[in-house]
Amino acid sequence: MPQYKNLDGDSGVDSYEISDDSITVTFRSGKERHYLFTHQEPGVAMVEKMKTLAIQGEGLNSYIKTVVKKQYAKKW
Fold first, then answer.
1. Which of 16, 60, 62, 69 is the most buried (most CB within 10 A)?
2. In which element (H, E) is residue 50 found?
């Protein structure tokens, strides 16, 4: 799982894993730190945007907090 670059230095995201139709995001803290986002939940557009932000290393945490919110397929 690649480490998130965290170019701003203030992200709660630790790492991510991208597949064709999903992205798994691991946060630095919390009881359930792993979140799976799929083309089904929250949808293709949001997942593809999260993939882009993850690769760029900037804006992923903010996007999840402000746009995606609790629309995830699974957390653990």
1. 60
2. helix 44-56
Distances in Å between the alpha carbon of 55 and those of 32, 48, 60?
23, 11, 9
Please give the Cα distance from 62 to 64 (Å, whole number).
Answer: 5
DSSP state of 63: H
Question: What pTM did the predictor assign?
Answer: 0.94
How far does Cα 38 stand from its chain's mean position? 10
Residue 8 confidence (pLDDT) above 90: no
Two structure tokens written together for 66? 């402000």
Question: How many angstroms separate the CA atoms of 37 and 74, rounded?
Answer: 7
